Amino acid sequence: MKIRTAAVAGVLFVSGIAVGYAAQKAATPSYRERAPQEAANALLQTAKTLAGKGSWERIAIGRVYYLGGQKAEGQAIFDAILADDPESSDLFRIGRVYREAGEWERARPLLQSYADANPNDSTQLAEIGAYYLMNGDRAGGERLLDRAFKKKPEFWAAVAAAGGYVNVVPQE
Fold first, then answer.
1. Whole-structure pTM value
2. 138 found inside a domain
3. Are 9 and 16 in contact (CB under 8 A)?
4. How many domains does the chain have?
5. DSSP code per residue over 49-72
6. Is residue 104 part of a domain?
7. At a CB cut-off of 8 Å and minimum separation 6, what does 112 contact?
8. Signal sequence span per UniProt (predicted)?
9. Which of 50, 64, 132, 52 has the alpha carbon at shortest distance from 93?
10. Backbone CA torsion sign across 93, 94, 95, 100
11. d(CA 15, CA 24)
C-alpha cells in the first residue's frame, strides 16, 4: 500500500512539475488595445503553450482558428490530431466543429465513426442523431436515436433528440 501511494504521489509530483513548467513558458498574452484578430492570435499562442500535447485542448484551439476565420490554421491542428491514431472522442469533437461550421459532409463520417465505436453512449448517439435530423436524414437520425434509447431513456439524450426534430442544436 505504501509503495502504491508513493508511486501515485511521484506521478502527481512529476505531472505538477510539467504543468508548472508549461505555465512558466506561457507569457501573459498581449491582447489589450489590439485588433480583435491580433488579440485572438496572442491568446491562442498562450493557449497552445498551455495545451501541451492534449488533444482536447488542441481541438479547442483549432476550433477557434477554424470558426474564427483562420480555417487553414485550425485544419492543420485537426489534421495533426487525425494523423496520430486519434481517440473516438477526438473524432467527435472535430466532427462537432465541422458541423458548427456548416460542413455536414465533413462532420458526418467523423461523428459516425464515434457512434460506431461507442454504441452505449446514449447522450452522444442522440446528439449525433439530432444532427442527422437537422441535415435532412430522418432515417439515419432515427436509427441513431433507436440505438440511444435501446436501454432506458436518458434526460440529455431525450432533449438532444427533441431538438433535432425542430432544428435546435443540442446543448454542448
1. 0.81
2. no
3. no
4. 1
5. HHHTT-HHHHHHHHHHHHHTT-HH
6. no
7. 128
8. 1-20
9. 64
10. positive
11. 14
Q: Tell me, what amino acid is at 100?
A: E
Residue with cell 492570435: 41
Instruction: Give a yes or no: residue 80 inside a domain.
Output: no
Residue 70: closest CA among 50, 34, 43, 49: 43
Cα–Cα distance for residue pair 65/77, rounded to 1 Å: 9
Buried b (16+ CB within 10 A) or exposed e, 142-160: bebbebbbeeeebeebbbb
pLDDT tens, the chain, 172 aa long: 555 554 444 544 444 544 444 445 566 778 888 899 999 999 999 999 999 999 999 999 999 999 999 999 999 999 999 999 999 999 999 999 999 999 999 999 999 999 999 999 999 999 999 999 999 999 999 999 999 999 888 999 999 999 999 999 998 7
73 within domain boundaries: no
Domain assignment of residue 44, given as a range:
1-52
User: Which residue blocks in the chain are alpha helix, DSSP H?
Assistant: 2-25, 36-51, 55-67, 71-82, 88-100, 104-117, 122-134, 138-148, 155-165
